[in-house]
Q: What sequence folds into this?
C-alpha cells in the first residue's frame, strides 16, 4: 500500500507551514531590530535567504538555467532586486521600528487593494463599484489602526510609520506587476534578485559606514528572517501552489497570517492587543474578501506579502 501523501493534503501541509512561519515574521522583525539597524538586519537576512535559494537551485539542478539569462534578464533582476527585497524591506523595517508590531503588520496586509489601484494606470484595468467599496472598507481599517481608535479626532499615533507601512504596499504591488511579465524559473529568478539586492545593501552599508559584525542575537534574528520570512517559506508556498489541484485550495489560508501574528506578538513581544487593532484588521480582511467577491483583479495571493 502506497504511503504517498495525496497532492491536496500535501499542498495544505506546505501552505500551513508557510503560514506558520510568516505568522512569526512581525515578531522576528521587532526582536531583531533591537540588536541591528534597518540596513544591517536586511543585509544579513538577504545573505541568509540567498544561501537558502542557492541550495534549492543546486538541489533541483536548475543552476544551468542561469546560462539562458541574457543581459536584459540580469538588468531586469537588478531592477526587481532593488524593488524587493532592497527597497521593500528597508521601508518595511523602518515602519516596524516606528510602529507597534500589531500596527505595522495589518497595514502592510492591504497590498492587494493597492494592487487594484495601480492596475488601473499600469495594466489598463477598469475599476468596478465593488472594488471602490472594498478599498474604502480596507483603508478605513488602516485609519482605525493608525489612529488607535481615535477616528473622529484623526490623530495618528505615528504618521510617518503609517505612511511608510502603506508605502510598502505600493512597492510590493509594483514588484508583483513587473513580475507577471517574467517567464524565467521563479526560484532561479529570485536567487538572482536577492544576489543583486545583497550587493545594493553592501554598497549602502559601506557608504554609511555601518558594516559591522552583529551581536549573536542580532545575527540569529537576521538569519531567522532570511530563512523564514524570505527563503524557505517562499519555497514552501511555491510548492503548495504547484502541488494543489488549483490555487483556490490553499490561497485562502493566507488570511490566517495576521490573526496568528497577533497571537505571536502578544505572547512573545508582550504587546497588549488593542481593540482598535482587531477592529481595523477585520475591516482590512473584509475589504480584501469583498474585492475578491465583487471586484476583478489579478490572482494576488500567488505572491503573498506578509
A:
Amino acid at each position: 500500500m502506497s504511503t504517498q501523501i495525496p497532492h491536496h493534503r500535501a499542498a495544505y501541509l506546505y501552505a500551513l507551514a508557510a503560514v506558520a512561519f510568516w505568522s512569526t515574521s512581525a515578531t522576528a522583525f521587532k526582536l531583531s531590530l533591537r540588536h541591528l539597524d534597518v540596513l544591517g538586519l536586511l543585509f544579513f537576512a538577504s545573505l541568509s535567504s540567498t544561501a537558502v535559494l542557492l541550495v534549492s537551485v543546486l538541489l533541483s539542478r536548475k543552476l544551468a538555467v542561469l546560462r539562458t539569462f541574457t543581459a536584459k534578464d540580469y538588468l531586469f533582476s537588478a531592477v526587481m532586486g532593488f524593488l524587493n527585497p532592497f527597497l521593500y524591506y528597508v521601508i518595511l523595517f523602518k515602519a516596524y521600528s516606528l510602529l507597534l508590531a500589531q500596527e505595522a503588520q495589518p497595514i502592510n496586509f492591504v497590498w492587494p487593494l493597492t494592487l487594484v489601484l495601480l492596475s488601473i494606470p499600469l495594466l489598463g484595468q477598469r475599476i468596478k463599484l465593488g472594488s471602490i467599496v472594498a478599498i474604502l472598507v480596507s483603508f478605513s481599517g488602516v485609519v482605525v489602526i493608525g489612529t488607535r481608535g481615535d477616528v473622529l479626532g484623526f490623530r495618528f499615533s505615528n504618521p510617518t510609520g503609517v505612511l511608510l507601512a502603506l508605502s510598502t504596499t505600493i512597492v510590493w504591488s509594483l514588484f508583483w506587476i513587473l513580475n507577471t511579465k517574467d517567464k524565467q524559473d521563479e526560484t532561479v529568478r529570485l536567487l538572482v534578485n536577492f544576489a543583486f539586492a545583497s550587493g545594493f545593501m553592501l554598497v549602502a552599508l559601506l557608504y554609511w559606514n555601518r558594516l559591522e559584525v552583529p551581536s549573536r542575537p542580532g545575527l540569529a534574528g537576521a538569519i531567522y528572517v532570511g530563512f523564514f520570512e524570505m527563503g524557505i517559506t517562499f519555497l514552501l508556498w511555491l510548492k503548495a501552489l504547484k502541488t494543489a489541484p488549483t490555487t483556490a485550495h490553499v490561497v485562502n489560508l493566507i488570511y490566517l497570517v495576521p490573526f496568528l501574528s497577533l497571537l505571536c506578538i502578544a505572547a512573545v513581544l508582550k504587546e497588549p492587543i488593542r481593540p482598535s487593532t482587531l477592529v481595523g484588521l477585520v475591516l482590512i480582511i473584509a475589504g480584501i474578501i469583498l474585492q475578491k467577491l465583487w471586484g476583478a483583479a489579478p490572482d494576488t495571493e500567488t505572491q503573498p506579502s506578509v
The mean pLDDT is 89. The two ends are 40 Å apart (CA to CA). Residues 7-302 form one domain.
